[in-house]
Amino acid sequence: MNNLNSLDNCINFLLTGAQHAVFQYMKKNLAQFGITPIQYGVLGCIWEFDMHNPKDIATHLGVENSTISGILERMENKGLIRRMIDSSDRRFIHIELTDVSRDLEIPVRTVVTEVDKVVLAKFGEKEIGMLKDMLRRINAEEL
Amino acid sequence: MNNLNSLDNCINFLLTGAQHAVFQYMKKNLAQFGITPIQYGVLGCIWEFDMHNPKDIATHLGVENSTISGILERMENKGLIRRMIDSSDRRFIHIELTDVSRDLEIPVRTVVTEVDKVVLAKFGEKEIGMLKDMLRRINAEEL
Known about the structure:
Two copies of one chain form a homodimer.
Chain A: H1 11-30, H2 37-49, H3 54-61, H4 65-77, E1 81-85, E2 93-97, H5 99-119, H6 125-140
Antiparallel strand pairs in A: 1-2
Helix pairs in contact in A: 1-5, 2-3, 2-5, 3-4
């Protein structure tokens, strides 16, 4: 069995462990704004990429279309977004920021930037670039 | 806002995307054995590390104690493990393999080894070592 990979060396196990640790840390740091990591993802899509369509946002975040509507509903209930429904075509939904979420951009992005620094504090700039590039390439794979 | 990190460059976003892709691929490949990635994790703890205590297994897998009992119950219902309860101390549970899960070790570990190869096919040996080492170090951080 020497050529069989060990559980502790398996890429799924390692990614799951690292993701869980970082996700929990991010969640803890975003709690002060009353938002979750996935809600930050939605806001990031609007703040940075001017996305207003639920489908585009879902695709960008790698979330199922069926999941995104629940996320957006909770965000609307919290006053973070407004969902504008086209009266002539009810399938067409346009997402807009509110004053609350507009004001959150700088403080939230400052905290997110800080989370990255803390998580990656042990690594050099070159290592960080390599890690992020590899994660991007794994993400882009047709598995 | 130039010194603020972008959503697409945030380590939580990148880890979550890569983890999701690899997890789904692992899940698809394990389905032929009727087991999920976390159930493989439990079996791996017994196969490789001779762990028999639910707490040790939960700690090794980074799973909450409250979650592990549900996982073990489903595995028992599938005939993958037996849970032996000490009659003098009902909190003490000893997990044992069954003939079914004993026979699964080589085929499952062969598929898991293959999953790693496919996911990491684009990378050189040195890059893979670096990636896994960095994920391990992130996982070990006190965040």
